[in-house]
Amino acid sequence: MLLNAEVIEEVRETLGDATLRSFLARMLAEVEETRFQLLSLLDTADYPTLAATSHRASGSAASVGAVGLHAALKEIENTARGPAAPTALPDLISGLSTRISETRLALISLIGPL
User: Fold this and answer.
1) Number of helical H runs and strand E runs in the chain
2) What angle do CA 76, 77, 78 make, to 5 degrees?
3) Which of 2, 4, 31, 51 falls 20 to 30 Å from 107 in CA-CA distance?
C-alpha cells in the first residue's frame, strides 16, 4: 500500500486542500533530497547519520499518509543500524527513486495536481 487515504483525508479536513497539497509537495521534495543525502552518507559509510536522516524523512512521510515511503525509509533506517548495512543499503536507497515516483502518481490520482 502506497497511501493511507484516511490519513490524507484527515489532514485535508484539518488544514484544507491547498495546505495539504503544499505539505505533500514539500514532503516529496524532502524525500527526494534525502535520497541524495543518503547516497552521499552511504559513500562515506556514515551509517548512524544515514539512519537518523532516514528517520526524519520517514516521519514526514508518515504524517501525511505516504505509508509506502514511510516503510521504505524505515527499512533503510533499520538496515543502517545493523550488520547488513554495507551490502543491503545500496539497493534499498536506489529503490527510493521508484517509490517516490509511484507515490507522486498515487497522490495525483487521489487528490489531483500537487
Assistant:
1) 5, 0
2) 95
3) 51
